[in-house]
Amino acid sequence: MKFGNFKSTEALNKNFNRIRELGLESHVSELNTYGFTVVPPEKVADREFFLDIRETVLRICKDRTGFEFQLDKNGEFGEYKAQPQSDGQFLLFYLLMADPVFEKWILNPTLYTLIDYLMGGQQQLSSLTSFVKWKGERQGLGLHSDSPPDRDGHLPACSDVANAAYCLTDYTLDNGAIAMVPGSHRYCRQPRPGEGEKNAVPVEAEAGSLIAWHGNTWHGAFPKKTDGLRLNVTSYHCHRRLKTQEAYQWRVTQEMLDRNPTEFARLVAADDHMGWDERGPDYARSHKYLPEEAKKQIREFRRKQAEAQAQKAESAAAG
Ligand SMILES: O=C(O)CCC(=O)C(=O)O
Ligand SMILES: [Fe+2]
Q1: What CATH number has the domain spanning 7-246?
Q2: CA-to-CA distance for 122 and 112, rounded, in angstroms?
């Protein structure tokens, strides 16, 4: 039996085949069992890309704070006011709009494939940020799930959001590794204050690794006790029916759309007609960025429909 092209799983076959091509099967198994996985650098991106994106994040730190940032030095807030800020930590927001290297990142095959798996193809980018950390005091691990709870406080069993941190520096216990509670994605609720801390493990990972997690997984961070920076690019995705944290849908430029494949347009909801003004919805948006195979299927379907109608009309005329 050959897996990978069953008719009844048409929507899933592409992702299944990509997982196999990229050698991500064990990571998918870890996501299912533990709710998170660590993909090693060689399966994520080449060194040149890694250095490029890291340099870019350091440059944006400088642009926004007014201070030169170096990996082995602690950071400073300077002129940067964006919230939340805590002891030894700020977040850089809206990175997708800050440099084209981030457009490449959200299309990175390993990131894209794992998120696609977790979200069943229904993902859009919610935010692209960098957690910039240096030595600082921290009360507790701040465990939480990234999924917004439902009306009754429950989380859906499926991954309504999915997240992944591209580590731009090593993650170790002492330098403030992310903390995960293995298997907590199955609890389908947020932790109570302090709950789960005893079972939290440090996710140690080499710079260049990708840590991906199910939206329900309880996670937080250990305190950063060492000097120097802990940097990442946090790639947070949500289901297309949810609001995004950052505004892309109507702000992404035509230039950005033109220089990227259709997957990019769908990640930034350029194919989504919702959120219209007095001109009403533009339904053509959803068709414009469909993959070529889907467009072909639609053309074929319409051609067959027209043929059937013509035949019907012909036989009606022939009496
Ligand atoms: O690395 C951390 O500080 C935790 C980050 C976090 O909670 C997240 O990216 O959702
Ligand atoms: Fe989080």
Answers
A1: 2.60.120.620
A2: 12
